[in-house]
Amino acid sequence: MLSTLRFVLFTAVSLAMIFAAVYFTILNTYKPAVKTYINGEFIGYFSDEQQFDEVYNDLVAEKQNIDENVKVYLESEPTFEQSYIRDSLLEQQNVYTNLRAEIKTEYTIYEVVVDGEQQMTFTAEDQADDYVEKLKAEVSDIDANVNVEKVAELKDITSTERADSILANIVDRNKPVEIPEPDPVPAQTQYATSVYTGMVTPAINGTRVWPTVNRRINCDYWGYYGHNGVDIGGSLGTDIYAYMGGTVIFSGWDYTGYGNCIKINHGNGVITIYAHCSALYVTAGQQVTAGQTIAAIGMTGWATGTHLHFEVKQNGVSVNPWSYLNGI
Ligand SMILES: [Zn+2]
User: How many Å lie between the centroid of ligand 1 and the Cα of residue 303?
Assistant: First the structure.
């Protein structure tokens, strides 16, 4: 009897100990957790809702690292289901990856649009404004502005280096076309092609007079680079004649190289110039007639020998004097 009672007691204690062992084992291995879904997608188990928030905030920070002004959101609120989970499983989940897939982003981008074409994309508004201002400063009348857009993903953001190069290209493309200066053309070609072409009929028309007694040409129009008149040989003191009637608009010393010089306005924008004179016989404001003696040949100013530098200007621009001298 006693032995039976001892057996029962022993069995009961043993069973209690086994249950306790199993109970504590289960308690240690399985933990309460919240099973989390977003938009019906299973994300994973979190120990509680607060842990979910921590992971979510980590991912928001990750996006804000790329662009601090990004708007980060979830399409719908997460749902939590109370549950239990084995400790080891909690470690093995990919909650970051799963949640990252559900996170929505909205970036504000600033596009620099030039003449209707998108040229640069920035995440910072002031950077876009800056390039528009630079473009407007460099190219007058350029159509450049900033276009604001909302996008889910950031792509093709323009680096500063690339933006500078794009800017340089646009400025280059919009440069005014430079007309190359014509190469000096040999005098003979000038002769052949310029006979009377391009001549503007002076207002005071009529007799045209060869401006001195000699006809020897020491140096022709464009005989050297920049020589914009014809040099007619002549000894010191030889008379210089007015090419045509007109008004003397200058008589005196010219500091640009002409030396003693006479300028006569014949009207219609036509002016004749007589340079390097040794003597001047007329004064500014005076009316002269064709062939009137106005000065004497010399070598004042930039001249290496005595000669008359005869030049014709049309509306302020030196032209080939042969258009005016031919046929006299
Ligand atoms: Zn000359």
Answer: 8
Question: How far is C-alpha 75 from the geometric centre of its chain's CA atoms?
Answer: 43
The one-character DSSP state at 47 is: S
Centroid of ligand 1 to alpha carbon of 310 (angstroms):
7
Look at 22 and 281; give whichever has higher pLDDT: 281
Q: Please give all residues whose CB falls under 5 A of ion ligand 1, grouped by chain where several chains appear.
A: 229, 231, 309
Per-residue pLDDT tens digits for 67-118 = 888 999 998 899 999 988 887 777 777 888 889 888 899 999 999 999 888 8
Query: CATH assignment of 187-325?
Result: 2.70.70.10
Q: How many CB atoms lie within 10 A of CB 219?
A: 18
CA of 213 relative to ligand 1 center, distance in Å: 17
Domain boundaries, the chain: 26-104, 107-173, 187-325
